[in-house]
Amino acid sequence: MSTNDLLRPQPLSHLQNSISSENGKLPIIAAKNSRPYNSDSGPVKPSIPLLTFLERVQETALESFGKTDFDPKRYIDLPLKFDLNVTEKGFDELPRSENGCVSAEDLRGFLGEYFEGAGEDLVYFEAGDFVPEPEEFLPKVKNREVRDWALEVHSLWKNLCRKFSADVGDRPELHTLLPLPQPVIIPGSRFREVYYWDSYWVIRGLLASKMYDTAKAIVFNLISLVEEYGYVLNGSRAYYTNRSQPPLLSAMVCEIYNKIKDLELARKSLPALIKEHEFWNSGIHKVTVRDDQAREHTLSRYYAMWNKPRPESSTIDKESASKISNASEKQHFYREVASVAESGWDFSTRWMRDPTNFTTLAATSILPVDLNAFILGMERDIAFLAKVTGDYGLSEQFSEFAEARKKAIESVFWNEEMGQWLDYWLGSSRCEEAQKREAGNQNHNIFASNFIPLWIETFHSDPLLVDKVMRNLQSSGLVCASGIATSLTNSGEQWDYPNGWAPIQHMIIEGLAKSGLNKARLMAEDIAMRWIRTNYVTYKKTGTIHEKYNVEKIGDFGGGGEYVPQTGFGWSNGVVLALLEEFGWPEDQRIDI
User: Fold this and answer.
1) What is the pLDDT of residues 84-113, one digit of tens each?
2) Of 99, 209, 438, 485, which is least surrounded by CB within 10 A?
3) Residues 6+ apart with CB under 8 A from 396
4) CA nearest to 444, candidates 466, 467, 476
5) Rounded mean pLDDT, 146-164
6) Helix/strand/coil for 546
7) How far apart are CA 561 and CA 499, in angstroms?
């Protein structure tokens, strides 16, 4: 599939190394326990008139300009020059053909007259804590060539640092961009706003770059979202208020605290972290599973508060849903699409009942391994931060939460035979009552997420467990020439084979490295070197750091999904710097081969 094709990839031509049934679908027992489609009755966050209008502009742009190089997000990000009613009137008065189409020339003129450019509501900002070569920067990097390149990666923070234009604060009704109190680091390219889970790896890179104030500013921005909405949004746009993303705010706070011992940051963050914990452990996100010993375990799932096309991808979602005739089933499909987006893994066969059929997305019927590992980490982090700030009662409470979730993860997700933690398919997406655990409901397909719990100290501090998981990772087929593949299924979706993503590499590498097992650290270092090398070789070929990479070979960026490959790139930069800080690069070891 051409990476310029913004429509949904065609069905799979083959499935690679699937360990489930012969036709590559999920285990039959997992798929049969709930219907492919459900009626939709969950909560829906209200939209705003600006988004409704911009979706009309987006759809007209697709009709007028065609599919080639069309990015629907661009039109939802356009800032208005005039009030909405004036802009809408101008749009309605555009000349139209008998079938209602606007000519490309007329639409182009309208866009220039009534809108600023996408991204122009953010302006470049020079971070006060950036210096071209920080003191004691990456002391383990002994190779001059690698060090020079690392300084180039470090310098990319200048390109990604932004502040909000005055108009965003003065006239917020003209923007889908949500104002934040501090300057921001954006991922890059089409991603012209802050993203939640990206920010963790941006912060890891900023800490390696000694940019502590910029790192703290990111945390304070995310805390402000929790204070206003009750959770951290997927990103800082009006169209992201209906969902969150993998919850790593507590991990960001702890990384900064452990580096600079800022007690005030720890104190200020705790109320927001407690509020976020409540968001993920109540209402639609909360699921109770009863095990074979009749013990009840509370776990969490992704569940977006939305059942319409995502505004930023409205034309794509409508095309994907075009063959669903039932209105309620279509709403349910849209909720599943948004819920997968909440997972950060948008999109992957991991969430599909049938990996050849995109409309079988079913994220709300899955208990994800990695989400619950992140929340275990959150509970441990809150316990730690409460302790260092002197709130011992709160610390004990969250230590108990963490212990309960550890037991839940062991009971529901762990598969002793495979030596991995497996996603769990729910019998129904309606979770008002406890569901009985069925061993056959584990998803036996191999995904990189099966190894993410190793990142959490609760698990990587157990040497016998680490040894077992490490050996199964080695034999899984995921470890490739330039890093860890996201899955074993080549579907055309971007969170599948052969793509590798910076955060996945980092979490698994760090879990192995922190385990204390020498052979686990050696494996971690080997994967890290592969990943660093492919970033370097691709950078030298293209002049940029990429969002994702093809792990089948060294020096090739990734593709697939619903948009063209992006560069910049916040979390990739951060992981390169974090890995070089941890492992360095020997003086006599070449990086360009």
Assistant:
1) 999 999 999 999 999 999 999 999 999 999
2) 99
3) 383
4) 476
5) 97
6) strand
7) 11
Structure tokens at 168: 């965003």
Q: For the sheet containing 122-124, what is the strand order?
A: 122-124, 161-164, 184-185
Torsion angle in degrees (nearest 10) through CA of 558, 564, 570, 574: 0
Question: What band does 583 get if pLDDT is binned at 50, 70 and 90?
Answer: very high
Residue in this structure with the two tokens 């075009």, named with its chain if needed: 322
Q: Is 232 within 8 Å of 247 (Cβ atoms)?
A: yes
**In this structure, how many other beta carbons lie within 10 angstroms of the beta carbon of residue 520?**
23
pLDDT at 402: 98
Angle formed by the axes of helices 369-388 and 249-260, to 10°? 40
CB 127, CB 95: distance < 8 Å: no
Instruction: Specify whether the CB–CB gap between 424 and 441 falls below 8 A.
Output: yes
- The answer to whether 482 and 530 are in contact (CB under 8 A) is yes
Candidates 121, 193, 276, 547; catalytic one: 547
CA distances from 522 to 458, 490, 534 (A): 21, 29, 19
Average pLDDT over residues 110-131: 97
Tens-place pLDDT, residues 273-312 = 999 999 999 999 999 999 989 999 999 999 999 999 999 9
Claim: this prediction has a pTM higher than 0.90: yes
Which residues on adjacent β-strands are paired with residue 566?
none
Look at the block and give the residue holding tokens 């793509």.
Answer: 499
Model confidence over 506-531: pLDDT tens digits?
A: 999 999 999 999 999 999 999 999 99
The Cβ-side half-sphere exposure at 226, using a 13 Å CA radius, reads 25
What is the amino acid identity at position 82? F
Tokens of 547: 């969002």
Distance CA 549, CA 571 (A): 13
Could you tell me the pLDDT band of residue 18, with boundaries at 50, 70 and 90?
very low
Q: Measured between alpha carbons, how far is 542 from 193 in angstroms, rounded to an integer?
A: 24
Catalytic residue among 312, 317, 346, 370: 346
Q: Is 346 a catalytic residue?
A: yes
